[in-house]
Amino acid sequence: MDPRPPSRKRRRSSACETGKGPSEHSIGDSRPRAGDQTGSGTGSLRYRLLACGCNVYGQLGHGRGYAQGSTGLFSTVESPTVVMAAGASLRVLYVGVHTVCVERDGCLYLQGLLPTLAPAAINPERCRRVLPLPLPSSVRARDVAKAFGTQWSFVGLILCDGSICTFSLAGWSLARPSRTVVPGKVADIQINNCGELCILSYDQCHVDDSGGSSDQPKHSTSSVITVYPPLPSITDNLYDSSLQSLSPNLAASASIFRLPVDTSTCASACEYFTSIAATATGFVALTNNGRVHTYGDGRYNSLGRALNATHSAGSANNGAGWGLVAALDGIVIQRIAAARGGHIQLALSADRTAYIWGGDGTENVNTSAHPPTASPTTDSSDEDVCMVDIASPGSGEPVDFSHAAVGEDHVVLVEADDGGVWVSGGSDMAQTGFGQEYRCLPTALVADEETRKQKAQWRRWDPIIEAEECVVQVECGFGCTLVVVGEVTEGYARLVPNI
């Protein structure tokens, strides 16, 4: 890690950043095993889901074909293991503390605790930990862009047309809301650990082009991020949260952040939001111009900026509470990642460099939001954005990254060239794939320099992809990591609704 402000020019890493020889770069005898993989029933299995980490409720898998840690509270999958396979498609849509939602070969499945809470008519003895999730008659799996939920509960789906489907545990069903719960075309819904709800939605505007040479009107995309205070239907229902109480008449928004539409140019020159992610106490947002904004309180360096560096007030759409991460200014960011139960955030740039900030979850969760040493009116250490600088074991050149995911206390990065997987951070539940051990991230606030030197290295998995394969998707959850390998298809690129 480079402790200095981010720079586009990277240096070669020292030994403490890339491990101490081969033992730090491999998992030894932990090459992915077939285990109790759940097949698709098709003739050719082209996709595989590998997982490691917390498996208390069987959310990663519950077969006997792979090594697990002790049963009960500390049940874990110790190393990257194939837990599912598919022929046509395989996507991880939602990862919660105890439940995972996947789309496999055109069908949706919930795996883990929630199936055991399904109605007796569906799961008579409450012993099945994997159940199919029926879609509404007019919806196909290919129409699903993504899923959303709290840390504890699967809440619903976002479709490619910008509409949503909400989940009912009592009926074990998905349904479109009878009325418009969320205005506009929804691109994403994120819920943090405080119960706050953040919605990214789009509108398409027609721009007058009377002075232009084309007869066709220009289109400009207008995006808005709305943050709602904690909703009763989310905070009061641990396993069966819903959006019932979300209505303009019932829930006043805490913040509205609308980027201005440049009516003098076409959509390509207009800045709008492309993605959002939730942390334990806030949110992070990315624009199409590669700029990153954060929202929330100042604990754990989770804002990546000074606490008082927020957008100025002025109108109803002023983005109250949001602020630009100035340390990344001038760097074109293409992806962001965070964990709804953690404080780490990550940004992946167009030149395939990764930047992280925020504590790694080892800090006291009761820390004051405004400690005396970092008052809201003064600058603090909240600007500590660090560049990930890893040297390739073979060439010694800086590693470029194509995918990234963030857990509550760990980070996973995927090499752009050969699909190598790098991990750093907490491993108390084997979430890094190296078994259960004490580890921390280089950004850990309570770890001293010597501890970070010994316990915060970036380590590389043994190869998990075969010839003609690549890493398609990587996701992290509470103490776990999930990686999809296989062929790239059009479906995996449809991450946001069509607008």
Summarize the structure.
The chain has 499 residues and is mainly β. It has 4 helices and 28 strands. Strands 2-1-28-27 form a 4-stranded antiparallel sheet, with no helix packed on it. The protein has a 4-stranded antiparallel sheet with strand order 3-4-5-6, with no helix packed on it.
Over the alpha carbons, how many angstroms does the gyration radius reach?
22 Å
Strand content bin: 25-35%
Q: Please, what is the average pLDDT?
A: 78
Report the major sheet.
4 strands, antiparallel
User: What distance lies between the first and last C-alpha atoms, to the nearest angstrom?
Assistant: 38 Å
Strand order of the largest sheet: 2-1-28-27
> How many distinct domains?
2
SS field, number of helical segments: 4
Quickly give the structural class.
mainly beta
Helical fraction: under 10%
Low-confidence runs (pLDDT<50, min 5 residues)? 8-43, 64-72, 206-218, 363-382, 490-499
Write down how many β-strands occur, each being a DSSP E stretch of 2 or more residues.
28
| Principal-axes shape call | globular
Descriptive overview:
- InterPro entries: Ran_GTPase-activating, RCC1/BLIP-II.
- GO terms for molecular function: guanyl-nucleotide exchange factor activity.
- By secondary structure, the chain is mainly β.
- It is built from 4 helices and 28 strands.
- The chain has 2 domains: about 1-25 and about 205-225 and about 265-460, no CATH class; about 30-135 and about 460-490, no CATH class.
- The protein has a 4-stranded antiparallel beta sheet with strand order 2-1-28-27, with no helix packed on it. The chain has a 4-stranded antiparallel beta sheet with strand order 3-4-5-6, with no helix packed on it.
- Strand 15 and strand 16 form a beta hairpin.
- The chain starts with 14 loop residues before the first helix and ends in a 13-residue tail after the last strand.
- Mean pLDDT is about 80; it is low at about 10-45, about 65-70, about 205-220, about 365-380 and about 490-499.
